[in-house]
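Quick one before lunch.
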Amino acid sequence: HDIFLVLVVTAAMYAAKATDHKETKLSLYIHDISAFGDPKDTVIPVAGIAGKAWTFTQFGTVYVVDDNITKTPDPKSPKVAQFQGLYVTASFDGLRAFATASIVFTNEEYNKSTIQIQGTNQDPDTEVAVVGGTGKFRFARGYATSKIYFLDTATQHSVVQLNVTVHTS
Ligand SMILES: *[C@@H]1O[C@H](CO)[C@@H](O)[C@H](O)[C@H]1NC(C)=O
Ligand SMILES: *[C@@H]1O[C@H](CO)[C@@H](O)[C@H](O)[C@H]1NC(C)=O
Ligand SMILES: *[C@@H]1O[C@H](CO)[C@@H](O)[C@H](O)[C@H]1NC(C)=O
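Model of the 2-acetamido-2-deoxy-beta-D-glucopyranose complex:
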């Protein structure tokens, strides 16, 4: 009897573990345009250290970002979300930027749900934390990896590939 009970309880615990979380993997492309003053810019410096240039490689520069996110690298492919937040050049050597942003979904599947990400870039590949979410991503935890997929230096249009893995309860 006791052994049977132990087996039942153990099986129930495993069942609970299996349904502990739901994993969602997303592959997204962020379109970042920073042509320094072009009206199409989606990454704009808003603050920096007095007397220093407000550039990506200058410690202390703060950028506000509102990038389109699409499902494929083609900027004309269906938009699924916006990437809205801040980049801050956060190392004295100017090599690392800290990002805090919301991925705000606009597609049918995740309409108005969000994923919050935070972390610093590490060239050439970056991993940041998923620190939370809303809507369908409530209680989200996870990580996102990113790398530059395409860079057009003439127009300063970069396409960043972002793979997001989140667990929600
Ligand atoms: C962002 O997407 C909208 C359409 O959804 C488009 O009108 C706009 O031009 C795009 N912005 C950029 C900078 O590509
Ligand atoms: C998202 O939801 C709003 C209403 O809350 C609706 O107007 C809009 O069409 C929805 N978008 C998509 C892509 O389903
Ligand atoms: C994203 O996932 C794809 C498919 O698994 C992989 O080929 C690619 O290298 C990944 N990119 C990043 C930035 O993690």
